[in-house]
Specification:
It is built from 19 helices and 15 strands. It has 553 residues and is an alpha/beta fold. The protein folds into four domains: 36 residues, no CATH class; 96 residues, acylaminoacyl peptidase (de novo design (two linked rop proteins)), CATH 1.20.1440.110; 219 residues, Rossmann fold (3-Layer(aba) Sandwich), CATH 3.40.50; 106 residues, no CATH class. The strands form three sheets. Strands 1-2-4-3-5-6-7-8 form an eight-stranded mixed beta sheet, with helices on both faces. It has a four-stranded mixed beta sheet with strand order 11-10-13-12. A three-stranded mixed beta sheet has the order 9-15-14. Helix 3 packs antiparallel against helix 4. It starts with 8 loop residues before the first helix and ends with a strand.
Length: 553
């Protein structure tokens, strides 16, 4: 009898018979056969089922369960540690996860703010209250009216914003404007200037996801160019939609007319120089308003639209429930019926003011063809199309290149409205952009060479000597009215401040006698940069007259 490894033929036969019966035995005992061969990998073997609806389609009220909701994602390409943490923990396209992760970092920042406030460290408390408010806003910004957490989340974001500005002097004025018979809350922000100055003014028509608090804080680039800004949560937006149940009408000109009526009553507004900025869905609302309101001198949009039904509602299905809410429709079918009136068809030819029609050639939220149809229809407007706009920030959330966006809209508006700085104030061309515009990627030609020459020979790099300076502006023999940087904390981010905003020294009530500043004088202009603001941002890019400067310490 042959043997192999100590087993006889009979032993091998017995082993084979036993092994052949193991699968049947395992079914009886509910233990997978040969489970020990897979180790921990066996935990999902034998999991017999199909689609997991809750995990695959977490957005139950969104087409496709949220899979096409490109806004519900967060990029790791950021320097903010809280945003990076959200990006790493977030389940993309999941509304519940989006809300929970942003509210978690909001809780953390509010706790930090409370700690600073308890010690009366108001500047630091202010900064972290603003961060907490912004994270709350992000958590609820895409929610529908049917979400139970929407209203409490909105109220919390607003309360944190208000708390932040109780600790610092705000850069804006709170206003109440009667629009379409309703009293609506808003904000007015203007440059510094001599008493009696009348400023050209930008009226902002917000988009579907906009809130007035964030919009006014983001208006610094217009204020720095000598323009005032008015932002009101109109029907279908922000507080008007959430707290007053007011919805957006198709004829937006009647809302904008009331805003201009209000501006005409202000002594600090030049009512002959009013422009209208359309943000996102405002790319329909602003041109439509200009078709019926002739006091508007210029219109510019980030995402031009000919009609909301075709360009937004049908083009980007995840936003359909939001649009339904904005216009006050009962359901999606009712929304489709109502949206037939939300068009510039038949009225675009009445737009006579200049227009800068922004769009994004690869925009996945607002159809770029809508901008082209608007351009074709507005035959009586001196109009230009501008392709560096749209909604590219949502593509950037998923990674990939992040192209530099130029301040085209701000400069176009300043030129069209004849904006310029008050005597001795910020340069209307805006701050020097050292990071790229003065490198080989910068603008070619004589202008770039001149700026390079000025940088090379100006010698105005201001460093750590700030510690020796007092809270006064360095006098100059030919100086005009002195100016003081007013830092509005998180406006512009924690790093280099590239759109500094100034007030007259006589209006710098936010400075205390013991506060240190960095003083710079040149070309008849004197400016003071509070050391606390420079420390927070690490550096400020600015101009002293024609000379680009970088202030740090």
């Amino acid at each position: 009898m042959n043997q192999h490894a100590g087993l006889s033929r009979r032993g091998l036969l017995r082993l084979g018979l036993c092994s052949a019966g193991l699968p049947a035995l395992s079914r009886v005992l509910s233990v997978p056969a040969f489970a020990q061969e897979l180790g921990p990998g066996n935990r999902n073997v034998g999991d017999v089922r199909g689609r997991d609806e809750d995990r695959l389609f977490p957005g139950r009220d969104l087409p496709g369960g949220g899979q096409t909701e490109i806004r519900l994602n967060q990029s790791i390409h950021t320097s903010d540690p809280d945003e990076i943490e959200v990006a790493l923990r977030l389940r993309p396209f999941d509304p519940k996860s989006w809300y929970e992760e942003w509210m978690r970092v909001a809780d953390r920042n509010e706790e930090i703010a409370e700690g600073y406030a308890a010690q009366k460290l108001n500047v630091s408390a202010h900064q972290f209250y603003l961060r907490a408010s912004d994270f709350c806003r992000t958590a609820i910004v895409y929610q529908q009216d049917t979400d139970e957490s929407m209203l409490p989340g909105y109220k919390r974001a607003k309360a944190l914003f208000d708390r932040a500005w109780e600790l610092q002097s705000p850069p804006f004025e709170r206003v109440t404007v009667t629009v379409d018979g309703h009293k609506l809350a808003g904000y007015f922000r203007k440059p510094g200037g001599p008493p009696g100055t009348r400023f050209p003014t930008v009226v902002v028509y917000q988009g579907a996801d906009s809130l007035a608090e964030n919009t006014i804080m983001g208006s610094g680039s217009y204020v720095a160019r000598g323009m005032a800004c008015l932002v009101v949560d109109l029907p279908g937006q922000g507080a008007a939609k959430r707290l007053q149940q007011l919805y957006m009408p198709p004829d937006t000109e009647r809302l904008v007319s009331d805003l201009i009526n209000y501006l005409e009553t202000r002594p600090d507004v030049d009512a002959t120089r009013i422009g209208l900025r359309g943000v996102s869905m405002g790319g329909y609302s602003a041109p439509r308003a200009a078709s019926g309101e002739k006091r508007i001198q210029a219109v510019w949009t980030s995402a031009g639209s000919h009609d909301v039904l075709r360009d937004l509602f049908e083009y980007y299905p995840p936003i359909q429930q939001r649009v339904r809410w904005i216009i006050g429709a009962r359901d999606l079918e009712d929304a489709r019926r109502k949206l037939k009136d939300y068009t510039v068809e038949g009225v675009a030819h009445k737009i006579e003011c200049p227009m800068l029609i922004g769009y994004g050639p690869t925009d996945r939220i607002m159809d770029p063809q809508g901008a082209y149809r608007l351009y074709q229809a507005a035959v009586n407007s001196d109009r230009k199309m501008w392709s560096d706009a749209g909604h590219p920030h949502h593509d950037e959330k998923s990674g990939g290149p992040q192209p530099m966006r130029l301040p085209t809209a701000q400069d176009w508006a300043a030129r069209r409205l004849g904006a310029g700085p008050p005597d001795g104030g910020p340069d209307p061309r805006g701050p020097a952009r050292w990071s790229r515009t003065l490198t080989r990627d910068g603008p070619p030609g004589a202008a770039r060479r001149e700026e390079m020459r000025l940088m090379k020979y100006s010698g105005l790099l201001v460093g750590a000597v700030a510690a020796a300076l007092t809270a006064t502006v360095i006098p100059g023999r030919t100086q005009q009215r002195p100016w003081v940087l007013r830092d509005f904390a998180m406006d512009g981010g924690q790093f280099y401040l590239r759109v500094p905003e100034f007030v007259e020294a006589s209006q710098a009530t936010f400075l205390k006698d013991e506060d240190r500043v960095i003083g710079v004088t040149g070309e008849g202009v004197s400016k003071a940069y509070p050391a606390a603001a420079v420390t927070w941002h690490h550096g400020v890019e600015d101009r002293i007259g024609r000379l680009p400067v970088f202030v740090t310490w």
